[in-house]
């Protein structure tokens, strides 16, 4: 039996400083992309609720296209395809941020739409009956209530998007997974290094989960 | 004679359903009008047309001398009307994310452009008037149903409306809380507020109404003073309706 595998803690531990060089990229792409995605989500989510078909349809098309295609294909398209169209190269990090932005934006649009639709119609009626304009009613009454309900699904999307950044090793972004691959190429300690990579992802997503739980708990006891 | 509400030949459909049929209704300043009728007869739709929560298909409607056009084609006068017309809903529709005081302050702040100080003072005054001065900083869900509905009335009053619409304000309340809300409404009527009230509280109608209107399948079948309607109804539909509601 020469297949007596021994987990080498030292190897896992040693890889961490090198892996952590990828962390700023992972975080920057995740959060940069999510911030833009949130803005896109508000824009297209609200447009998709509009009564006017010429506003609603483009928003619906955007949502369906970016939810219905793999993010890996989206980023390959942005990185290799888009430069042909615009006649200039796009650097990998920018392509990655755009991919997270448009992808999470589509899902967040649905979160926004669902959140706004979940607010009882009587709330709007009470607002306009008081003489508030439709915009004021939305801004002071519907949105604050909808936003509270959007927090858990938004947190969920953030976790998904953070994990999605691991795909961007394919276009050469030096994020966590890419760093792992480079490290393994020199040390041949795949098991230990991927284990360390996984733990780093888990540390990020768990921190986020905990923050969200605290927020939910607080807003429940406040309301 | 100028009416605060002047409705002529008002018609309204929901799809195939003809819910309001040639409604003629004039309301004078200071009048308390109670609208009664079976479920689905069109009572809510009727009063919701007055502040434009429902649009209508045909006919004439003037509220506080602002003219409303059919099919919702009058956003401008609609906004003017809504500033002058308060509405109280069956389900209260308080804003759950705001404190009681903030619920009342919102419209004075944003529509009347009052200062925060003035709006807060007004809110406290109105809360005292509806008998819940000490609840200002609670959230609506911490109050009983009767208290919530009184906050909703205070919220509408904060705009100093010239007309108040009530759509079954006590129907969602536990029986023991009905009285406290009716008391507030009685007080308003006494102070001369013009009120249109949809209710099943016949005792209240008899005592407070200047005029009672009976609606059946989208038509005003009969109207008159409470005595005329409750003691001496002429139409057999009215008689049948009243004997049904008064017997239980
Ligand atoms: N938004 C709507 N779409 C379609 N039909 C409606 C709508 N609102 C009300 N209706 C119908 O119109 C009719 C009149 O409704 P309305 O709510 O005015 O009756 P109501 O007299 O207030 O009844 P209730 O005592 O149950 O409140 C009913 O048949 C109702 O089902
Ligand atoms: Mg009704």
From TrEMBL, chain A:
It is a multi-pass membrane protein. SUPFAM superfamilies: MetI-like (SSF161098). Its main location: membrane. Gene3D superfamilies: MetI-like (1.10.3720.10). Residues 23-212 form the ABC transmembrane type-1 domain. The chain crosses the membrane at residues 25-49, 61-82, 193-215. PANTHER family: GLUTAMINE TRANSPORT SYSTEM PERMEASE PROTEIN GLNP, MEMBRANE COMPONENT OF AMINO ACID ABC TRANSPORTER. Belongs to the binding-protein-dependent transport system permease family. HisMQ subfamily. This is Glutamine ABC transporter permease.
TrEMBL record, chain B:
Its main location: membrane. SMART domains: AAA (SM00382). It comes from the Bacteria. It is found in: Cell inner membrane. It holds the Pfam family ABC_tran. GO terms for molecular function: ATP binding. Residues 5-242 form the ABC transporter domain. It is a peripheral membrane protein. InterPro entries: AAA+_ATPase, ABC_ATPase_HisP-typ, ABC_transporter-like_ATP-bd, ABC_transporter-like_CS, MetN_ABC_transporter-like, P-loop_NTPase. Keywords: ATP-binding, Nucleotide-binding, Transport. Belongs to the ABC transporter superfamily. PANTHER family: AMINO ACID IMPORT ATP-BINDING PROTEIN (PTHR43166), PHOSPHONATES IMPORT ATP-BINDING PROTEIN PHNC (PTHR43166:SF4). This is Arginine ABC transporter ATP-binding protein. It comes from Marinospirillum insulare.
